[in-house]
Amino acid sequence: MTFKHIEESQITMTQLMLPSHSNFRGNIHGGFILNLMDQIAFACASKHSGHYSVTASVNKVDFLNAIAVGELVTLKASINYTGRTSMVVGLRVESEDIHTGIIKHCNSSYFTMVAKDKEYNSVEVPGLILETEDSIRRFARSIKRQKQARKRSENFSPEDFKIDEYIEEVKSHNVRIEL
Predict the structure, then answer these.
(1) Inter-residue contact 56 to 84 (CB < 8 Å)
(2) pLDDT tens figures, 122-150
(3) What's the pLDDT at 152?
(4) pLDDT value for 60
(5) With CB atoms 3.0 to 4.6 Å apart as the test, which of 24, 49, 52, 109 could cross-link to 61 if both were Cys?
(6) Do 76 and 10 contact (CB within 8 A), yes or no?
(7) pTM over the 0.85 mark
(8) Nearest alpha carbon to residue 103 among 111, 115, 95, 113
(9) Cβ distance 115 to 131 under 8 Å?
(10) String of b and e for 20-42 (b: at least 16 CB within 10 Å)?
(11) Where's the HotDog ACOT-type domain (predicted)?
(12) In 3-state terms, what secondary structure has residue 109?
């Protein structure tokens, strides 16, 4: 089994935000940013694994600050977790106002990527060498997120869902139930 240092596959990408990337308010479309995030996650995971990698899932993307036309957007990607054939890529998106130098954190997200061979079969990926407390925290956080996702899937599967456990909570929201 092989292992790689996290730094070996880290990627940073910076791009100028153009009017063609914007919505009617002059802010950059979230979908355009998601596309850039997917590209850098692909590049980071492929660099780590030595194979093309596909997006298996995206964990929560919260847009924290708008990005304006004319700003520089920098995306940073790093492998946070490695499984047998999958990797979790941590992403951070920042924008910079060229005139003022002010940098804003726009969003962070986690992309789960799976390495594929030329026949599109999943292939094993190198493990990670964890050298800092922060790298161990990120790896552990990915393990915890996976466990929570499995539990959520189990609790809400059609076979196991128990309406009596949730009906009152659902009624307290902006719905009208007509069973």
Answers:
(1) no
(2) 999 999 999 999 999 999 999 999 999 88
(3) 83
(4) 87
(5) 109
(6) yes
(7) yes
(8) 95
(9) no
(10) ebbeeeebbeeebbbebbbebbb
(11) 7-119
(12) strand
pLDDT tens by residue, 69-110: 999 999 999 999 999 999 999 999 999 999 999 999 999 999
| Amino acid, single-letter form, for residue 136 | I
Q: In angstroms, rounded to a whole number, what is the distance separating the alpha carbons of residues 140 and 80?
A: 9
CB 46 within 8 A of CB 126: no
Q: Which of 34, 44, 38 is CA-nearest to residue 12?
A: 44
CB 11 within 8 A of CB 113: no
In sequence order, what are the residues at sequence separation of 6 or more whose Cβ sits closer than 8 angstroms to the Cβ of residue 42? 52, 53, 54, 55, 113
Reduced to 3 states (helix: H, G, I; strand: E, B; else coil), residue 137 is: helix
Q: State both tokens at 76.
A: 């940073």
d(CA 97, CA 92): 17
User: What are residue 30's phi and psi, to 5 degrees?
Assistant: -60, -35
57 Cβ neighbours under 8 A, 6+ residues apart:
111, 112
Q: Are 157 and 28 in contact (CB under 8 A)?
A: no
For residue 119, give both structure tokens. Answer: 């026949």
